[in-house]
Amino acid sequence: MEKVSFDQDRNVTRRLTIDFNVPDYAPLFVDKVGNRFWLVPLSLMRRRTLVNMRITDENDHVLPTPGIRLAQQLDESILVAATATVAPEPAEPDKVRAFTRELVAGSRRQTKEAMELFEGTKEGSEGEVPLHLVPLVESPIVRAVVHLIRRNFSLYVFLPAGKRHRLINLEFSEPTGWTRMTPCMTPDGEVREYVHDDRPAAGTEAMRAWRVQQARRKLSTGLPAALGLLPTRIRVQVPGAENAASYHLELTAPEGVEVVEARLLAGRPNRGQQNDGQVRYTSDHVVGHTATVGLHGVEVPNGSLCQAQVDFRVTSRGWLTNAVFSCGLVAVVLASLVLKVTYGGASWSTGQVTNIIALLITTSAAVGAMIAHSTFTGVAARMVARLRGLAAVAVAQPIVAAGALAFAEEVDGTSTVRLDGGTRAVLWMATCAALVVFGLIAAALVLSLRCERRGHKAASPWDMTDDDKEEETKPKTFAAALEKYEFDRSAIGILSAEGWHERYEWTDDKQDAVVKALEDLAPKSRWVTSTPASDRQDSVGDVGDACHHRAFPRQPSAMRRG
């Protein structure tokens, strides 16, 4: 189970609960005083500094983790095992070991050079791969491991030995830049590359074209969302779904914000035959007004792209209602003033003008106090920032009108003020500005009320409590689902601290071959038995063939997440 909460403006907190059985073959470590610990892998994490990470067991005891050098040695062993499936004894073992060491434990420059050697892009190589790496490049498992650990590392914990059925809680924070990202994927084929943001390198011709395109995206989606006319869409990576037999995600909206729609989508984007597991996927979809939404997925195959998408909207109660009332009050006061000028004559006494100026300033002060008072913080405050700016514009219009009246000239020798054409124009512009602001904020309120009144428009396919609701027709392929469910559109992106794939080429055939190769290399155990291809598990999530290696665990201690 994974819980994502938007607690702060610049941070998203993730809390994962992992329910699993410790395998019988888990490595056992003994410390200096004789305490025994199992070494347990939890997840893949991005190779960057983690923020506010905390790992605890079911008793809320903090669990230790290996140091960086031990973790690097363990990751090297993964790549060595993958290499052994190609050739247990490489032709040039020293060079292969050097490549492995530099890729996993080298500096940024060394890691980059190791990848350039592997891909044949190193300067002066003329596109050729060194001979000692050619067999590795041709191996699907080695390619998958190399590209996976290029930017990720394995997270291990030392778990006190004892009972084997355990719960581990993993919590960390992720910085949120509130940057709009538009994903990009290479054309359909056996190998597809997916990037979460199509932003090109700085200083290139493509960057200038991208900025123009990004400006159009902000005008079409970003600005309406900032004004409350469209929901604010946030896309969250959930790579943990791939590591679980059953995965549950909870998204909690901050105070003052509601969830209007949420969707989970996980599967392989690379092409395959229609009856192959790689073209199947799991998805969940909920539409309705709620503060917390739950999404569920099962049997996500290895090599999957896993994402969740949530649409937020500011609630109607509280600040938004006050803002509409306040801006409406300003618009009414200014409109009555304009009608007075238009139909009541342009000559007013100085006492009348003074009273009107006092009324305008008092209205502005009262409305300003109502708009400034708000309990919104963090994400909610950011979402209403543009609406607050508009409301501030409305608050300023009575002051503008009062200034225009204050500078109107008196008729010589009398206590009469005559409003010239310039003064009347300023009053009209102030009134029009207040009416436009009132209309925009009122539209945001109406749309928010509409979302709240419609209730649960679409229930999750896992919801079996109502037989009258129609089941959603799902696309046949994952690529079609990406387009239909708008995962290819612009949205505020939150990149996970957990590791994810950048290349997608894994298939069930490759999975079968790799499992067999690793079983042949591994010491024989009474638990290790091959899984027949016919052992498929069907489920309500329409992922029957998603990953038959997860359908029936190969040993009783298969790890699973809530």
How would you portray this structure in words?
The protein is α+β, with helices and mostly antiparallel strands and 562 residues long. The C terminus is likely disordered. Strands 1, 2, 5, 7, 12, 15 and 21 form a seven-stranded mixed β-sheet that branches. Strands 8-19-11-16-13-14 form a six-stranded mixed β-sheet. α7 packs antiparallel against α11. The longest helix has 34 residues.
Feature tags:
alpha+beta; seven-stranded mixed beta sheet; single chain; 562 residues; 14 helices; disordered C terminus; 21 strands
Which SSEs are present, and which pair or pack?
Blueprint: E1 2-5, E2 11-21, E3 28-30, E4 36-46, E5 51-57, H1 68-84, H2 93-105, H3 108-119, H4 134-137, H5 140-149, E6 152-160, E7 165-175, E8 180-181, E9 184-185, E10 192-195, H6 205-226, E11 232-237, E12 246-252, E13 257-267, E14 281-290, E15 292-298, E16 305-314, H7 319-343, E17 347-349, H8 350-372, H9 378-383, H10 385-406, E18 416-418, H11 421-454, H12 478-484, E19 491-494, E20 503-504, H13 508-521, H14 548-551, E21 560-561
Parallel strand pairs: 1-12, 11-19
Antiparallel strand pairs: 1-2, 2-7, 2-21, 3-4, 4-6, 5-7, 8-19, 9-10, 10-20, 11-16, 12-15, 13-14, 13-16, 17-18
Helix pairs in contact: 1-2, 1-5, 2-3, 7-8, 7-10, 7-11, 8-10, 10-11
